[in-house]
Amino acid sequence: MNLRGVKRITVNRWLKQYSAGGLQKLLKIRHVTGRPGVILSPDTTTPIND
Fold first, then answer.
1. 32 φ, ψ (degrees, to nearest 5)
2. What's this model's pTM, rounded to 2 decimal places?
3. Cβ 24 vs Cβ 12: under 8 Å
4. What's residue 43's pLDDT?
5. Secondary structure of residue 14 in the 3-state scheme
6. Which of the listed residues 16, 24, 37, 46 has the most CB atoms within 10 Å of its CB?
7. DSSP label at residue 36
């Protein structure tokens, strides 16, 4: 199910974080590990190659 552009699992994760530590925990910036996302050029849907 997708409500307002956000999946149910994401909302559940947010609620769990809020429950565990309030607003401070919810708003904490996490460092993402793994492969970076692909940046698309604004006028096309083709990836920009470096």
1. -90, 130
2. 0.48
3. no
4. 67
5. helix
6. 16
7. P
Whether 10 contacts 1, CB under 8 Å = no
pLDDT of the chain, 50 residues: tens digit per residue? 566 788 889 889 889 988 998 888 888 877 777 887 777 666 666 666 65
Judged by phi (left if over 0) then psi (alpha if -120 to 50, else beta), residue 9 lies in alpha
Of 25, 50, 26, the closest CA to residue 36 belongs to: 50
| Amino acid type, 29 | I
Q: Which residues of 27-43 are buried (b: 16+ CB within 10 A; e: fewer)?
A: eeeeeeeeeeeeeeeee
Phi then psi dihedrals of residue 16, to 5 deg? -65, -45
Q: Provide φ and ψ at 7, rounded to 5°.
A: -75, 155
